[in-house]
Amino acid sequence: VLLCLWPQPLLAVWYLSLKLCPCLSVTRDTQAERDASSTAHSAGADAEMDAAVMAAMRQCLDTDGFLCLSAEVLAPLLQRDDLVARLAVGVARLVELGHSPSSICVYDEHWELIRRLSPLLEAVTGNTASGDIFTFHKSADRKHTGANTHGFGSNPHRDKPTAGPESFRADGAAKYCTVWIALTDATPASSCLYVIPKTLDPGYYLEGDALVAALPGTSSTPTRVVDDAATTPHAAAAVDLGARRFENIQAVPVDAGGGCVFSHRLVHWGSRPSTGALPRVAMSYALADNLGEFEIGEFFSHAAYSPFPPLELRVALRAAQAVLYCEQKPFEKGGLGLATRIWRRGSRFFEPRFRTKVNDAAQWEKFMQGRR
After folding, report:
1. Where is the signal peptide (predicted)?
2. Which end of the chain is more exposed for a tag (fewer CB within 10 A), N or C?
């Protein structure tokens, strides 16, 4: 539909906003508004978070590898004008109509959430928004099977499993972090994040994914370890070291409007939702070192296009995502060709290294489809 409407921008706006999601908008992309909103928000953010609070957040992130931010803490930034609730309704509407949850990125409110959080979280992490975005949807209801993102992040993983020492700064801060914001309540019943804190992860700084070092093992051979509560050598017991690591797993439930910031080396995953629980929806985006020394850096020029990228850029980014993540969410017949055409129409907005990455991924998927 977007491909057909593209020559008529007003029709595209009508379809996306009035037809699909009346509670959301797609018209905020003027340079004047970017400048005004960015300046106004930067001043407000400084007043809402003092230096001591931000220092404590930074220390928590550096110590544990993740930082949990409650809905109460983020309320001054996110809860005015029901931004989070409107995004949740928008995702539900898209899912109801058969669209991907990540298609929410074409709407202004998606970028407004990033705009409001950026001054705080960029100061805490030392990184800036890269353009790497994704929206998760989990539900045990069979009617949501097509929209669910169970294949994304459901198994324990590190976001950058091949990263080495170059992915950290001299002070130990990560050059890549993920911001994960719950648009609906994320509970153990509906699905929430589970993590292995950095302090309990021997593989955090090792080369490769090093998951074996962090996760519970399956060996039935007991290993002698001294219990933490033991006061004498006689209290030592034969304990399966793998089984013992289960106690290192930490749940991170948050209410709608709360979230989590974590480094690229944190082992984490999203749990399976329980039958009868409401769908769990969460929006994520990446903060990365904008010097491009690690990974790709910016996907597009934020100086030129943020905080509200042009609609054509947003749609092209969604198409690029579909190509890059097609192993987890395979294309239906004809889907790759459509995504590639949409991507090419807007690819001029993106940085050369990101264009190369998407084009190579599209070529590889086309080759693999020919072999299936």
Report:
1. 1-25
2. C
Q: Is residue 336 within 8 Å of residue 299, measured between CB atoms?
A: no
Q: How many residues does the chain have?
A: 372
pTM: 0.86
Choose among 137, 140, 112, 123: nearest CA to 33.
112
Residue 159 and residue 111 in contact, taking contact as beta carbons nearer than 8 Å: no
Alpha carbon distance 67, 205 (integer Å): 18
Q: What does the domain layout of the chain look like in residue ranges? A: 50-207+241-298, 309-371
pLDDT, tens digit, 9 for 90 and up, residues 40-50: 444 444 445 67
DSSP class of residue 275?
Answer: T
- How many whole angstroms separate alpha carbon 335 and alpha carbon 43? 44
Cβ contacts of 102 within 8 Å, gap of 6 or more: 133, 134, 135, 318, 321
| DSSP string across 307-350 | SS--HHHHHHHHHHHHHHTTTTSPPPTTHHHHHHHHHHHHGGGB
298 SS3 class: coil
The third-level CATH classification (topology) of the domain covering 50-207+241-298 is Jelly Rolls (2.60.120)
